[in-house]
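We were asked to recover a plausible sequence for a given structure. The inputs and outputs are reproduced exactly as logged, with field labels preserved.

PROBLEM: sequence recovery
POSITIONS: 230
GIVEN STRUCTURE:
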């Protein structure tokens, strides 16, 4: 008999943001020289949800996404997180984190259905959902860049259009005591399951974006300082 798998759901609380935003801002100021954004702020359709797809090579990435949303988009944010980690840090559920257990088929199905439900929330502006498509923490240079199947399945379950927004993240020491965190958004495209191009196409877009970010760092391009020292 099939038993429905439990999961940790997001339970947003305003008091959690009030505590966490200044805390994570100070934490990043202490550990990074700057948080720097290349390129322009993406233009998003306000009446559509956002599916944000970053690479995942440091444990800071969730913090970075939180701050990027607060500074640039200011949408109600959700983030898919491994259940073993979220169970240890349940406070993050108050900021929009919810769980997935990658080695449990039942948990994966529940989390993907829950993700599609997030994209269907009728709020203004529509929510922002962050999924790390690699599904695990991996070295930045690892290629090919492989997506799990979850993104395409979430789009299928959702059924409608979304702002699909790739994001490249890289931390780098530049002859400084503290590293710099660099960010580069890809082109925001409005897609649904039928028009997203499939998992392979999404992988290619993210890999090209990562290469573009690396090139800009090597060429010492000046980015927009979001946090830290000029």
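RECOVERED SEQUENCE:
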């Amino acid at each position: 008999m099939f038993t429905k798998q439990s999961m940790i759901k997001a339970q947003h609380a305003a008091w959690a943001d009030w505590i966490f935003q200044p805390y994570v801002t100070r934490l990043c100021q202490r550990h990074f020289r700057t948080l720097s954004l290349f390129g322009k702020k993406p233009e998003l359709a306000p009446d559509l949800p956002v599916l944000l797809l970053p690479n995942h090579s440091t444990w800071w990435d969730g913090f970075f996404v939180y701050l990027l949303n607060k500074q640039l988009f200011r949408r109600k944010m959700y983030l898919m997180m491994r259940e073993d980690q979220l169970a240890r840090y349940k406070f993050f559920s108050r900021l929009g984190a919810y769980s997935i257990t990658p080695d449990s088929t039942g948990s994966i199905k529940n989390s993907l259905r829950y993700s599609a439900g997030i994209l269907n929330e009728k709020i203004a502006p529509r929510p922002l959902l962050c999924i790390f498509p690699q599904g695990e923490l991996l070295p930045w240079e690892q290629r090919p860049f492989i997506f799990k199947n979850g993104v395409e399945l979430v789009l299928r379950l959702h059924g409608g259009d979304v702002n699909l927004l790739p994001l490249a993240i890289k931390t780098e020491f530049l002859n400084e005591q503290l590293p710099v965190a660099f960010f580069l958004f890809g082109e925001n495209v409005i897609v649904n399951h039928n028009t997203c191009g499939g998992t392979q196409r999404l992988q290619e877009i993210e890999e090209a974006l990562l290469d573009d970010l690396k090139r800009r760092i090597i060429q010492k391009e000046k980015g927009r300082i979001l946090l830290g020292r000029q």
